[in-house]
Design a protein that fits this description.
Blueprint (H helix, E strand, L loop, with lengths): L3 H18 L10 E10 L2 E3 L8 E4 L4 E9 L6 E14 L2 E5 L4 E6 L4 E11 L2 E13 L2
Antiparallel strand pairs: 1-2, 1-3, 1-9, 3-4, 4-5, 5-6, 6-7, 7-8, 8-9
């Protein structure tokens, strides 16, 4: 008769192998580091001095780290702002980016990842919706 330690060792081995083989979305092409290529607001390209350093890192566990560099004033260095979000694969090339207070849609193409958002703003005393697109390209 086999000892209980033998059965526990086999069980631990099976559980260990099963859990290490499973990583959510591990083969999803969205996983990786993406560098900001351009931002448009209502179709008009937006540029800020430090933008070329912006990037997102998307993990296969569903996490996103967003590194945004902002110019404080024209003669200053870039200031880093880090935000965290989650991502969810909806279907085909469609994704959701889930922030603490909002959810944005995203689309993966052959060479880019585009995050779209619509934000209501007050312009000249009127409430308008500004649609933004952030286009990222994967770093090699």
């Amino acid at each position: 008769m086999k000892s209980p330690q033998f059965f526990i060792a086999v069980l631990l081995l099976l559980v260990g192998c099963a859990s290490s083989d499973f990583t959510p979305e591990s083969n999803n092409p969205v996983v990786g580091v993406w560098k900001l290529h351009k931002i448009t607001n209502d179709g008009v390209e937006y540029f800020e001095q430090c933008m070329e350093r912006n990037n997102i890192t998307i993990s296969n566990e569903g996490d996103i780290v967003i590194e945004t560099f902002r110019t404080v004033n024209p003669n200053s260095n870039c200031m880093l702002i880090i935000n965290l979000a989650k991502w969810k694969h909806i279907e085909d090339n469609t994704y959701q980016i889930i922030y603490e207070n909002s959810v944005n849609e995203a689309e993966l193409t052959d060479d880019s990842f585009v995050i779209r958002s619509a934000v209501e703003q007050n312009k000249s005393g009127q409430q308008v919706v500004v649609t933004s697109e952030m286009l990222y390209r994967k770093e090699s």
